[in-house]
Amino acid sequence: MIVIMINLSKMEKWVVIFTLFMAFLSQIDSYETYPFKNQSLLLINCGIEGSEDWEYYEGWDWAPDIGYINTGIAKYIQPQPNINVPGYLNSLRYFPHGVKNCYKVFPDPKYKFLFRAGFYYGNYDGLSRPPTFDLLLDGGFWATVNSSESEHGPIYKEILYSPKGESTSICLVMTHDNEAPFISSLVMAFVFVDDGAKPVYKLMGNNTALHLVSRTFFGGLDKVISAWTWETCDEYTFRIWQPKSVPGYLNISYNVGNENINGCLGFNYENRPPDSLLKNAISAANVSDSISLQVDFGNNTQRNAYFVLYFMDYNLSSENQNVSRKFEIYIDGESKKIVELNGDEVGQVATLYPVEVTGIANLRISPVNGSDFPPILNGMEVYTASEIVDTGGGFKLRCSCETVLFSFLVVLSILFV
């Protein structure tokens, strides 16, 4: 082979060089081709055709995924009767070729981020065979997607994560033959900047990822927490809060206007909960009663969980200085924290981590002697935690790229000796 190359004409040598150079370029994930650096918010409507086709849904602009991925096939979904699907899930991108296909995004490294991938099968391929596949985040396992669960509506996979390099990859991995992965939407939203006094997921280390199990607000019945504005002071970081009615407990609502407080109520508390969450709660009926709830972690594998519980009783304000709600939090019978709400401190956020759980965890909030009122609960977030291996992030050459580059340099040296 070397002899043949040496005997090539000058023009033929340049053809060989050009061919090898193009092979080298094709193997590089060149981040410079993406102009979207240091983003704090990105809403991607997967599968929209055309780089200029931004869509407007629920008060926000959703971008097409052109520029974040260059593989896969875009597809629109026919509306399904009796299934309410947000407009940004009416298209998708599916990946019949290759085992792994990846999006590249560029989060601002000074934030923690919420990543949420949305999936709605909608029988887009006419096969009535929803696939199962895996999601990876920066090469680490994120979740398994069983899209048959989207038969009655979209499903979401969400994670809180501190990006390590100048880019983050979200990969869809084929795990079963003839089951092409797909994705309908992708959200990347910053989760504030820690300022010490009001920390954000304060026990979440930089090498910890939090996988969402549930995010619930109580007492608001079927109320939907809207996107944030200065008028509503509701959800600011694109967290989805599911309203939950709990039979056997009282639903409490507080008529608190923003004019009565210094700015948004939630900004005074850890994780900046939406004001609607803090203005609604469930309460035990009697001062001697407990609140008991279960959290299903899906299987009997032991893991570390991250609990965040939100408490507020705005009625315990200045006119009620001498009374309090005092209660103790138990998980699977083990005491975790005592909380007291009174006129000086009408709200608290309790973060519990690490909590070892297996299967179904039993949460109990019980009154402490001397409490004037029964236990209360406004909202709760539950995650499982995983540790991230820091690979350093940034630009990397794949093995195949290194091989092509080495071959290119060797041939170049031979051709021009």
Automatic annotation (TrEMBL):
InterPro entries membership: Malectin-like_Carb-bd_dom (IPR024788)
Malectin-like domain location: 44-384
Transmembrane residue ranges: none
GO (cellular component) term, any one: membrane
Localization (cell): Membrane
Membrane topology type: Single-pass membrane protein
Keywords noted in UniProt: Membrane, Signal, Transmembrane, Transmembrane helix
UniProt-listed PANTHER family: CARBOHYDRATE-BINDING PROTEIN OF THE ER PROTEIN, OS07G0107800 PROTEIN-RELATED
Stated name of the protein: Malectin-like domain-containing protein
